[in-house]
Amino acid sequence: MKLSSVDFRTLVGVALLLLANTVGLAPLGATEHASDYLRPQSEWPALHINAHADVAPLPEALDYNALLAEIGAQLFHDTQLSIDNSVSCASCHNASLHFADSVRVSRGVEGREGHRTAQILRFAGHWQSLFWDGRVTNLEQLVGVPLTDPNEMDSSIEHVMSYVGSTAYKAQLEAYFDSPLVWQHVASAIAEFMRSIESPKRQFDYFMEAIAAGDFNEAETHLNAQQREGLHLFRTRAGCVQCHAGALFSDQKMHNIGLAYYGRKFEDLGHFQVSGDPQHVGAFRTPTLRYVSEREHLMHNGLFTDLLGIIRMYRHGGARPKPRPAQIDDPLFPTTSPLLQPFALTAEEEQALLAFLKTL
Ligand code: HEC
Ligand code: HEC
Prior knowledge:
The protein has helices at residues 5-22, 66-76, 89-92, 139-148, 157-165, 168-177, 183-196, 203-212, 216-222, 225-235, 272-275, 307-315, 347-357, and strands at 254-255, 284-285. The protein is mostly helical and 360 residues long. The protein folds into two domains: 28-59 and 201-357, Cytochrome c-like domain (Cytochrome Bc1 Complex, Chain D, domain 2, Orthogonal Bundle); 66-196, Cytochrome Bc1 Complex, Chain D, domain 2 (Orthogonal Bundle), CATH 1.10.760. A two-stranded antiparallel sheet has the order 1-2. Helix 2 (66-76) packs across helix 7 and helix 4 packs across helix 7. The longest helix is centred in the N-terminal third of the chain and has 18 residues, at 5-22. Residues 1-10 and 16-28 have low confidence and may be disordered. The protein binds heme C (2 copies). The site of one heme C (HEC) has 24 residues, from helix 12.
């Protein structure tokens, strides 16, 4: 077999790359923008053209009343609020998992399953709309939803009030609100507990603190060259920052990245069920990317477990299901967000983006 000169050059290139890897040198190109990030944020390379906001450190903690939050914490962990005393909020929102669940789809009373994956509650008090589809707009209003959902706690406000009214909670809540016990007090206490949930700092936050302080030597110790290259790709070519921006790494808006599974098993119409607008079929609230590498079940359906696989899906422009012949004229057939466009990423760059996600 005869090698053409092009093949030969490729071979030499691959050999050099392998050599560079074995002797521990970063392959050329994998960290070319890393040093651009050891500067004030205002001097970083320009953001992706469609981005409205840049990346930011964790949000300020919210104000809350410690006494009310403590009563709320007890209620949050109390299985007696459910219809058969078997399930509490904490059954599906586990503190050691950033208040998410260990399984793809949580189990409520009698092992019943819903169809979405439980969300982390670290930023519960920061969202303008709640749940994957944004169907509720405040925490107090949300509390009644899992309590009464047949697949979750299958309880009723009457059941909760008769239980709370017969325990020490009654005196505690009446003392706090200085008025006779009503359901709203129970909802307020649980909501206050959720506002008190802390969000521990991550490598990325220490990096941002050092950048803000102008201490670039310190910054370098928190994000290495590969992670800074990943930050660059996140903000630029890969386009993640168009939606995953700001302190929560979420624009808090509804987007369809192509996972409605329309007309198939796992179909979920998302925000369309809230707005009735066909443009919202398959749209979900951009989730936070905080703590994402420590979570197992990703996306609203929890069907994704591999961050590299997710990066590759975005590299191809998101999921782009094709309508079957019978669906061609279906006005509800979902359209993937035009913000998602295919982009090129080398294997090293994929690894850099992954390394950056792990710092969040
Ligand atoms: C059986 C499991 C289960 C139980 C019990 C449960 N949840 Fe959830 N929780 C979920 C799932 C699943 C979701 C996502 C649902 C969706 O988006 O439709 C969720 C979402 C939430 C959210 C929205 C977070 C966000 O980022 O928008 C909050 C807040 C919340 N739950 C609080 C509670 C509280 C408070 C209780 C107890 C009163 C509770 N949950 C009980 C499974 C559960
Ligand atoms: C058009 C807006 C948009 C862009 C751009 C975007 N995302 Fe997302 N991302 C979303 C939405 C919306 C979801 C939730 C979709 C769902 O559950 O169906 C999501 C989910 C995710 C998840 C799962 C998180 C979880 O908690 O389940 C990861 C990881 C993720 N995106 C990473 C990225 C990365 C990396 C990029 C850049 C390559 C990116 N995203 C670009 C909107 C976007």
